[in-house]
């Protein structure tokens, strides 16, 4: 499912149909195609030998009716409406809940929701990760101390994470939280490939490593979490230079100081893979109280004829 029918149409034409092209498509996919079907294929229905693929837009409530599937995938989940279906419609609720309803009856149901995060409090994928049984982060071994750690942005308030000389993005390096030694992107990608690591659960310590086996904190094989959140950001990508991440941040920071939160919102969502939190500006209550003059309650000062009160409210938002 895509957020809208237009998104679905674009996805099918740019991603699905090239895979199915008899001449230039993927041979294994083409071989699995069903040669004949009683149902004519459309942009939203593709048939295979032992399965079918439904391609739907998630805007209308009717998209969540009738069909039963074994796997439901919501792409760009955050871009879906908060609630689907009018109050008079029997099919009404959050897109994730409605999509999961289509899995009822499947012997091995699976739900996958992936997305760039959005605004905190209104982000489907961030909320789902918080509610999941566990959440995994990819950990690499430090080339200096051999202790696992995640690549993190860090920030000025901590000693680890990304550090660089102000105004010089090319000097960026990542500081290990354990030994405080620095690694460059070249150290992270020896031979052009990222360091081998493992997906490790934050709560339980369960891990999924190079042996492709789930293991508990003691290293014994175990069952995976029933529901799982996954977070990964641009620093892990071999296609994204670390210097460009720093350059984007410095430009976004300057824009934020000038009152434009747009670039920092994009940096937080698209690059850090985190939800953007809106914060309103407000006066310090103690400073405001100190400015009050000592008038007795329920009295009008001498010389006053009528008592009025007024408040001028101007609202601004900033993010972090």
Description:
- The model has no long low-confidence stretch (mean pLDDT 89).
- By secondary structure, the protein is α+β, with helices and mostly antiparallel strands.
- Among the domains are: 5-115, no CATH class; 134-244, no CATH class.
- Helix 6 packs antiparallel against helix 7 (262-271).
- It has helices spanning 5-20, 27-31, 95-101, 124-131, 185-188, 242-257, 262-271, 285-290, and strands at 45-47, 52-54, 71-75, 110-114, 134-141, 148-150, 161-165, 168-175, 182-183, 197-201, 207-208, 214-215, 228-231, 278-280, 317-319.
- The protein has eight helices and 15 strands.
- The longest helix is centred in the first third of the chain and has 16 residues, at 5-20.
- Strands 5, 6, 10, 11, 12 and 13 form a six-stranded mixed sheet that branches.
- Strand 11 (207-208) and strand 12 form a beta hairpin.
- 22% of the residues lie in helices and 19% in strands.
Oligomer: single chain
Give the strand content. Answer: 15-25%
Low-confidence stretches: none
Shape: extended
The string of secondary-structure elements, in order, is HHEEEHEHEEEEEHEEEEHHEHE
Main sheet overview: 6 strands, mixed
- If you average the pLDDT, what whole number results? 89
Q: Give the end-to-end Cα distance, rounded to a whole number of Å.
A: 31 Å
Structural class: alpha+beta
Radius of gyration: 26 Å
How many helices in DSSP terms? Answer: 8
The beta-strand count equals 15
| Helix content percent band | 10-25%
């Amino acid at each position: 499912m895509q957020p809208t029918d237009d998104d679905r149409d674009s996805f099918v034409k740019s991603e699905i149909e090239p895979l199915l092209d008899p001449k230039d498509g993927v041979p294994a996919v083409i071989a699995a195609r069903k040669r004949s079907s009683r149902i004519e294929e459309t942009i939203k229905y593709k048939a295979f030998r032992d399965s079918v693929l439904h391609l739907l837009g998630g805007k209308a409530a009717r998209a969540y009716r009738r069909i039963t599937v074994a796997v439901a995938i919501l792409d760009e989940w955050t871009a879906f409406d908060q609630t689907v279906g009018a109050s008079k419609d029997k099919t009404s609720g959050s897109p994730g809940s409605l999509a999961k309803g289509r899995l009822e009856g499947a012997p091995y149901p699976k739900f996958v929701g992936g997305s760039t995060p959005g605004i905190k409090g209104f982000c489907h994928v961030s909320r789902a990760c918080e509610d999941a049984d566990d959440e995994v982060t990819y950990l690499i071994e430090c080339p200096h101390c051999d202790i696992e750690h995640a690549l993190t942005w860090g920030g000025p308030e901590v000693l680890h994470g990304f550090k660089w000389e102000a105004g010089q993005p090319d000097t960026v390096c990542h500081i290990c939280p354990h030994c405080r030694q620095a690694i460059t992107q070249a150290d992270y990608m020896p031979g052009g490939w990222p360091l081998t690591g493992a997906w490790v659960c934050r709560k339980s310590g369960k891990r999924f490593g190079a042996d492709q086996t789930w293991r508990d904190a003691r290293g014994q094989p175990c069952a995976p979490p029933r529901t799982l959140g996954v977070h990964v950001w641009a620093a892990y990508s071999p296609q994204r230079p670390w210097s460009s991440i720093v350059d984007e941040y410095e430009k976004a920071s300057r824009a934020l100081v000038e009152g434009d939160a747009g670039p920092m919102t994009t940096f937080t969502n698209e690059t850090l893979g985190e939800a953007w939190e809106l914060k309103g500006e407000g006066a310090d209550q103690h400073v405001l109280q100190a400015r009050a003059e000592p008038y007795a309650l329920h009295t009008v000062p001498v010389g006053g004829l009528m008592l009025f009160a007024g408040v001028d409210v101007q609202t601004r938002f900033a993010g972090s």
